[in-house]
């Protein structure tokens, strides 16, 4: 499937119709249903929206994504559909779109469905007892990651050119790393989470997953903007992110770090280390100043746990008749008894943590790290595993992303090659406050020499459930 920007241009030029693109998307979704990428497919609504888009295009109307099919994660409200977020319950269809969906529709996008996730976004896999499991298009025995794994699988398998995910501890970047995509976690407040005014107490933001930096930047431009009731609001960027993707970065100072935050152990897979070191050499060849240096993370974990556990408790308590699996219920209990009490302390720590960790930006413009410590996990690896063992296991697999959620700063996953087993590896570009543009321009420069958009999964012929 062509990229998001390419589809938008083809529609505007009359080379293809929205009906054709949407039908192609729906056919691909049906063909690869065994990957479990979608929790629900909105075929009838998508066809109606495509027909309307074709009428508007024929009348000469032009919008950034008019007639282009996209997908959204199942934590995002879509009018007429439920939002179970992986948890069985007495769900009712939503009567209004989330702000991100409103912006997608205002840009003309056609939403073909809602993608699979785990319960309340807790894990780096997209599996739940109530709504099935998403599989990795590169090898269906492995997970595409989580919790935006359904969105990542949909893009990697060519069901849609781009999809929206959300990221509360790496949930965009981890699936992007494990499926060979570009995934952008924007600055806190860049993209509205409304009707959630402060989703997961500032941890969670919504953002794009796509094959190319150009497509991810275009989708981020469409999503960007605040709702008046958002807890965090930002002024619009001076320059569109799509323009940043077309702008070569200045010579940057890039710190390479393999350090993890306090309290997180685990072994870094040698193949991932080698891939990140290769990317560092590539950046040096591009003329950047690259050197080893570590952020001083301090007690950043104390900013994570109260926010995350209290956020799970709040979301679960808002679901009517919720029937979560035991480890989700355990996380919520911790949130009710401890997380909510410690939340004021976590917020008071923010300025000090930003100063401490932000010192690295006195001598670096970007920090390069692995996105994950391990290659994609096997599907079902944590089936029936108790809460604490699941927590320790996933923390060891994915220790690199979450500190930037506590800080609220932007980060981008870029593909860094394939393992010997043919599984994707990701590298993470970490930026300072509100500096998405630098990360996007650097990622685009890497894409031009790495050519990752040409890589496609080869393991799509045999359906799995």
TrEMBL record:
It comes from the Bacteria. It holds the Pfam family Amidase. PROSITE patterns: AMIDASES. InterPro entries: Amidase, Amidase_CS, Amidase_dom, AS_sf. Residues 20-439 form the Amidase domain. Belongs to the amidase family. NCBIfam families: PRK06061.1. This is Amidase. It comes from Actinomadura keratinilytica.
């Amino acid at each position: 499937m062509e990229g998001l920007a390419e589809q938008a241009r083809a529609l505007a030029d009359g080379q293809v119709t929205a009906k054709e693109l949407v039908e192609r998307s729906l056919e691909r979704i049906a063909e690869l249903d065994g990957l479990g990428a979608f929790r629900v497919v909105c075929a009838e609504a998508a066809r109606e929206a495509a027909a309307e888009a074709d009428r508007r295009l024929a009348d000469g109307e032009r919008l950034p994504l008019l007639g282009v099919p996209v997908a959204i994660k199942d934590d995002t409200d879509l009018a007429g559909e439920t939002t179970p977020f992986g948890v069985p319950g007495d769900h009712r269809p939503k009567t209004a779109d989330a702000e991100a969906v409103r912006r997608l529709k205002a840009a003309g996008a056609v939403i073909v469905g809602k993608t699979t996730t785990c319960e309340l976004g807790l894990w780096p896999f997209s599996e739940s007892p109530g709504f099935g499991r998403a599989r990795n298009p590169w090898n269906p025995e492995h997970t595409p990651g989580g919790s935006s794994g359904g969105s990542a699988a949909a893009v990697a398998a060519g069901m849609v050119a781009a999809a929206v995910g959300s990221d509360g501890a790496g949930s965009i970047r981890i699936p992007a790393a494990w499926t060979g995509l570009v995934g952008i976690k924007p600055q806190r407040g860049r993209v509205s989470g409304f009707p959630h005014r402060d989703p997961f107490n500032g941890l969670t933001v919504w953002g794009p997953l796509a094959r190319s930096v150009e497509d991810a930047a275009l989708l981020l431009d469409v999503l960007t903007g605040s709702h008046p009731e958002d807890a965090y609001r930002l002024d619009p960027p001076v320059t569109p992110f799509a323009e940043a993707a077309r702008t070569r970065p200045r010579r940057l100072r890039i710190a390479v770090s393999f350090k993890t935050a306090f309290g997180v152990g685990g072994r870094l897979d040698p193949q991932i280390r080698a891939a990140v070191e290769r990317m560092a050499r590539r950046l040096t060849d591009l003329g950047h100043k690259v050197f080893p240096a570590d952020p001083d993370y301090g007690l950043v974990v104390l900013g994570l746990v109260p926010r995350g556990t209290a956020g799970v408790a709040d979301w679960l308590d808002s679901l009517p008749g919720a029937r979560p699996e035991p480890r989700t219920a355990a996380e919520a209990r911790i949130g009710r008894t401890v997380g909510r009490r410690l939340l004021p302390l976590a917020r008071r720590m923010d300025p000090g943590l930003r100063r401490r960790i932000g010192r690295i930006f006195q001598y670096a413009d970007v920090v390069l790290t692995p996105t994950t410590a391990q290659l994609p996990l096997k599907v079902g690896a944590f089936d029936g595993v108790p809460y604490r063992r699941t927590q320790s296991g996933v923390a060891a697999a994915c220790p690199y992303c979450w500190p930037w959620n506590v800080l609220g700063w932007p980060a981008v996953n870029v593909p860094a090659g394939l393992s010997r087993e043919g599984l994707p590896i990701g590298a993470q570009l970490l930026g300072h406050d509100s500096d998405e543009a630098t990360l996007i321009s650097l990622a685009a420069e890497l894409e031009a020499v790495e050519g990752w958009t040409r890589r496609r999964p080869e393991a799509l012929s045999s359906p799995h459930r």
